[in-house]
Structure formats: structure tokens, C-alpha cells
From TrEMBL:
InterPro entries: Expansin/allergen_DPBB_dom, RlpA-like_DPBB, RlpA-like_sf. Keywords: Signal. The keyword Cytoplasm does not apply. Residues 35-143 form the Expansin-like EG45 domain. Coiled coil: none annotated. It holds the Pfam family DPBB_1. Residues 1-21 form the signal peptide. This is Expansin-like EG45 domain-containing protein. It comes from the Eukaryota.
Length: 166
């Protein structure tokens, strides 16, 4: 094995450890959004961007997911052209999908996105999306290059990584 091949292989495996996103389905829900399972009727729970979500049972973890933030991108949808290419959003978990006041467009999904969040990454007329999502760990002390979003695109292969650079 040449030195170049070894370095490329090392680089690939080094990046791979940071590229651990989950794959799941997302649906959307419309207002009213309150009360929520996480914060009741407190309106300050909602980000000003309106990019928030209700956690499906696989993400809920008995309420531990309340307040967590996730990076979400659309991979595909129920129909061709469902996704808005190149869009990644950051959502905050404010509710539990199973008990939300407003019902999702499809039951049993990993995340139920607010109407605004859903429309940011996909055609709102599509009933569900296949998504890639990863928990986003925000640091209270901002650092230069705190979050690195890396996209490697080789012809038809698209690979996304989110990594923290300490």
C-alpha cells in the first residue's frame, strides 16, 4: 500500500467517525402547537425562526429530548421532487408527536416538523419525507469554526457530515 493510499484511507475513516446521522421519516403538523408535552403553554419555548419539531417515540426518550436541537435534511419524499436540494435546517424539540395537540400528516415518524420547518426543506404538499437527522450540540461559548458541515459529492454519491471542531 502506497503512502498516498494509506493517507486517503486514514482520512476516510477519520471522517467516518463524525458522520453518524440517523435516517428516518418526517411528517408535518399545523397550528395550534400549544400546549406541548415539554413546556405546556409557554410561548417562549418556540424559536423565533419557527423551526421546531415534535419528537417521535424513537427520539422522545421519556421527555429527555425536550429542548434538544437537530440538524435535518430531506433525502427523498413520497413523490419525486419533494425535497428542496441543499437545504439543511436546525430544529428544536418542543413536543411529543404521540400526544401533540395538532396531529401529524403521518403517524409513527421520527420527527414531526412545524409547518415552517417542513416547508424549509420540502414541498409542503408531500405527506412525508425520508430524512437524515443528527443531534446538534450547541456550545454556550462560541468558537470560530465550531460546527463544520462537510459535503462530499462524487458524481452520484452524496455524503453529509456534521462535526464539531474543538
Amino acid at each position: 500500500m502506497s503512502r498516498l493510499e494509506f493517507l486517503l484511507l486514514f482520512f476516510f475513516f477519520y471522517l467516518f467517525k463524525f458522520c453518524l446521522a440517523d435516517i428516518g421519516k418526517a411528517s408535518q403538523y399545523l397550528p395550534p402547537y400549544t400546549p406541548t408535552a415539554c413546556y405546556g403553554g409557554d410561548l417562549s419555548q418556540f424559536p423565533v425562526s419557527n423551526l421546531f419539531a415534535a419528537a417521535g417515540e424513537g427520539v422522545w426518550e421519556d421527555g429527555a429530548s425536550c429542548g434538544r436541537q437537530y440538524l435535518v435534511r430531506c433525502i427523498s419524499g413520497a413523490s419525486p421532487g419533494a425535497c428542496i436540494p441543499g437545504q439543511t435546517i436546525q430544529v428544536r424539540i418542543v413536543d411529543r408527536a404521540q400526544t401533540s395537540v395538532s396531529r401529524p400528516s403521518l403517524e409513527g415518524t421520527s420527527l414531526v416538523l412545524s409547518n415552517t420547518a417542513y416547508q424549509s426543506i420540502a414541498n409542503p404538499d408531500v405527506s412525508f419525507l425520508n430524512i437524515e437527522f443528527q443531534q446538534f450540540h450547541a456550545s454556550k461559548k462560541k468558537k470560530k469554526n465550531e460546527i463544520l458541515l462537510l459535503k462530499i459529492n462524487w458524481t452520484h454519491l452524496e455524503w453529509w457530515c456534521w462535526a464539531s471542531s474543538d
